[in-house]
Specification:
heterodimer, A: mainly alpha, 15 helices, B: 326 residues, 2 domains, 31% helix
């Protein structure tokens, strides 16, 4: 270990907090982006989507087969023909509201038919059976089902008897974009969708910062960082590095998702437009994701810095995750109470503020509240980073003999702790 | 440079000579436990300064406060003329006791990163990192990741990273810990060369021999307090030189001339050099026909000084500190 001959001058200069944070952020960003684990991280959402898609597809098939019950028909051939013709005519007008008819049996004039027995020996997924004649139809089935179909079978019989109109005038359609009621409802849907996506992304990605400082501590490099630059800069750098990594992830997912979406022939026009318009809504979505990420990430980072193992991190982060879930519910509840103190409270509480404000962007075109909220959220991020860094300095960078913790009355006396480093 | 009267927190420090570090009345408590209790230190620029004490004495906590890693509960510190150490972080190099680098980083990138943390532009750091590795016979490891290096090589990379930005003040926390005898010697050489360039070097150690060989000044720390801080010679002068006398006869009338603390061990009489010097004693021994076979006066070593200053208990703790080479 000979003395390094450093030929350069003493050319270094003091780093500002932001410059120091940039040094940390750049290292973390590059290290994560070019790691093998980032590739798997990108593939991560594919698995739940795949499983969800499969489960959804299977579920839909099951539901379709279960939810499309068939109405059995057992009448004389003439009545059967009339009922089928009536069903055809009404289906044109009422669509899926008319039950599907299945001829169980065409009865000869003196033939007896027992619908209860036919229902018991049900091989064709019959929900009920209509017997008798169009003049006196008898509907046999479970009480719940026959009550639901009573009116429709009556209409069917009336149509078969030509007691109702046999032809229907064509109604000309004069569509408008949306009525005010429709618009309000649609924007709530967009708001809900925005909130949910924001929450899922925040929870999914902010968790990444949890283990970051634990790794740093296990690499024992944290002391080198803390000696060279302020802890605020270390926290800030790590947060922004992880935010940038998340943005890369989201961009990749968004591009892949959009490609699939557009290839499938869909377009954004299928969704109700938010009050501020799509471009601003997306921009605000990015900003509020960043804010939500930084707020939650700063808490997670503080927790990660306090913990010494990944297991400890998981234990410590559980209450925060639960609280964040509550914040999401709070923001969702506030969305349905526009203009009330509940909505205002949800805007002010830092952890629910990004969700509430994104929902507001979908429902209300005013932009100034967003400027205010973003400034407020930034202040909260700065305060949380400062608190986390101070906590780290106070609680983590301790040395000297490990002292026995104060015993509670139910705890047995512990063996004296061995001295650690100086 | 001992101060027995700690300044009140926030009170301006009076600087008489260029000092790399000045601290007064530093106190740090952790959960009610006082790790450092009123430490005063003055480290002259360009000197090699040792902080000597057993494990758990408060050395690392003191260094961490000096570097701004943690803040003192009370007391003042000034590093290279600044109250806030991070303001001069670009002029400081620090090698912590627990060495650590990012395992996935290449060796030259690790050096460049450590330099970048101290304000050295990354591009320049990469150039210097590669050059340093070449100069130190580690050229073959330039593109290897830290996890591919041996522990000793990784330590060397970290040392180069500590010095890559050409700091004015270098702080080593237990730098000899974990090194074999050969590398300990090399590190001693490095420390001397740094000081020769005018760089201030501070290191903590619980190995008296390193401090004795290297340091211009030491601070002896025990139980979070600094009972002595100053030049090594001054520490040695705290105890009187020891006289070792061998006589033909073990006893005789001349014995009355020996000081009160004289004790007989084997064929030698051992005692502290009297205040009046050696001449009156010699005269008495000759007149008493003691038959002097040998007489030597030995100056006290730093170990003896440490025992005298910090006490037997601290010395025992120092000796019991786990260290493979003391």
């Amino acid at each position: 270990m000979d003395l390094p001959e450093i030929t350069g001058d003493r050319t270094t200069g003091r780093l500002s907090t932001l410059a120091a944070a940039y040094v940390v952020a750049r290292r973390d960003f590059v290290a994560i982006l070019f790691s093998r684990s980032f590739f798997f991280f990108l593939l991560g959402p594919l698995f739940p989507l795949l499983v969800g898609g499969l489960a959804g597809g299977i579920g839909q098939r099951v539901q379709q087969s279960a939810d499309r019950p068939v109405l059995g028909l057992a009448m004389s051939p003439a009545d059967t023909a009339k009922m089928l013709k009536a069903q055809h005519a009404l289906t044109d007008q009422l669509g899926q509201n008319m039950p599907e008819l299945l001829v169980v049996k065409q009865l000869s004039p003196s033939e007896q038919f027992d619908p209860v027995l036919a229902m018991k020996d049900n091989k064709a997924n019959l929900a009920a059976i209509v017997t008798g004649t169009p003049q006196h139809p008898v509907l046999t089935g479970s009480s719940e089902r026959i009550e639901g179909w009573q009116g429709r079978v009556g209409l069917l019989a009336a149509q078969a008897l030509e007691l109702t109109p046999t032809s229907f005038p064509e109604v000309q359609l004069a569509g408008i974009a949306t009525t005010r009621a429709d618009q309000t409802h649609s924007r709530v849907v967009t708001a809900q969708l925005g909130q949910t996506v924001l929450f899922l992304l925040t929870m999914l990605l902010a968790g990444m910062v949890l283990s970051n400082l634990v790794e740093e501590k296990s690499n024992k490099i944290i002391e080198v960082l803390a000696a060279a630059i302020p802890m605020d800069a270390v926290f800030l750098g790590k947060l922004f590095a992880m935010l940038a990594v998340s943005m890369v992830g989201i961009s990749v997912w968004a591009m892949a998702g959009s490609a699939v979406w557009l290839t499938a022939g869909h377009s954004l026009a299928e969704f109700p437009a938010p009050a501020v318009g799509w471009p601003i809504f997306f921009a605000l979505g990015v900003v509020y994701f960043s804010m939500g990420y930084l707020l939650l990430g700063s808490i997670f980072l503080a927790i990660g810095s306090m913990a010494s193992t990944v297991r400890e991190v998981q234990t410590l982060s559980m209450p925060v995750t639960m609280l964040q879930l509550l914040n999401f519910f709070f923001a969702s509840f506030a969305m349905a109470q526009p203009g009330t103190w509940i909505e205002k409270a949800a805007m002010i509480v830092p952890f629910s503020s990004p969700f509430t404000m994104l929902a507001r962007a979908a429902q209300d075109p005013a932009l100034w509240p967003h400027a205010l909220a973003i400034v407020w959220q930034l202040v909260c991020v700065a305060v949380l980073i400062k608190l986390g860094a101070n906590l780290f300095k106070k609680r983590v960078m301790q040395s000297g003999p490990q002292r026995t913790k104060k015993r509670r009355f139910w705890q047995r006396r512990a063996a004296p702790a061995a001295p650690a480093n100086a | 440079m001992v101060s027995n009267a700690p300044a009140a927190a926030g009170q301006p420090l009076a600087i008489e000579a260029p000092l790399a570090i000045e601290a007064k009345g530093l106190v740090k408590r952790f959960d009610g436990f006082t790790a450092v209790d009123g430490v005063d230190l003055t480290v002259p620029q360009g000197s090699i300064y040792g902080i000597l004490g057993p494990n758990g004495a408060g050395k690392t906590t003191t260094l961490r406060m000096m570097l701004g890693i943690i803040d003192p509960d009370s007391g003042v510190r000034r590093v290279l003329g600044h109250d806030r150490p991070h303001e001069v972080a670009h002029a400081i190099g620090y090698l912590p006791e627990e060495r650590g680098l990012y395992p996935s980083m290449k060796a030259y990138e690790a050096i460049a990163f450590l330099g970048a943390l101290r304000g050295l532009p990354l591009k320049e750091g990469r150039i210097r990192g590669k050059a340093l590795l070449e100069e130190h016979g580690l050229g073959y490891a330039i593109d290897r990741t830290i996890r591919q290096l041996s522990k000793g090589m990784a330590q060397q990379v970290q040392l180069l990273g500590t010095l890559v930005h050409n700091p004015r003040l270098v702080v080593f926390d237990e730098p000899f810990s974990g090194l074999d005898a050969l590398n300990q010697g090399k590190l001693e050489k490095t420390i001397r060369a740094l000081a020769a360039k005018g760089t201030t070097v501070i290191f903590s150690t619980h190995v008296i021999a390193h401090a004795e060989r290297l340091c211009d000044e030491v601070a002896i720390i025990a139980g979070g307090k600094v009972p002595f801080a100053g030049p090594v010679d001054l520490a040695r002068d705290r105890i009187r030189p020891q006289v070792r006398l061998e006589t033909r006869d073990a006893d005789g009338p001349w014995r009355a001339a020996l000081p009160a603390d004289a004790r007989h061990e084997g064929q030698f009489w051992l005692f502290s050099l009297p205040e009046s010097g050696i001449e009156p004693l010699l005269r008495a021994l000759i007149e008493g026909e003691a038959g002097i076979l040998s007489l030597s006066i030995e100056r006290a070593g730093l170990h003896d000084a440490f025992v005298a200053i910090a006490g037997e208990a601290a010395a025992r703790a120092l000796e019991q500190s786990p260290e493979e080479a003391r």
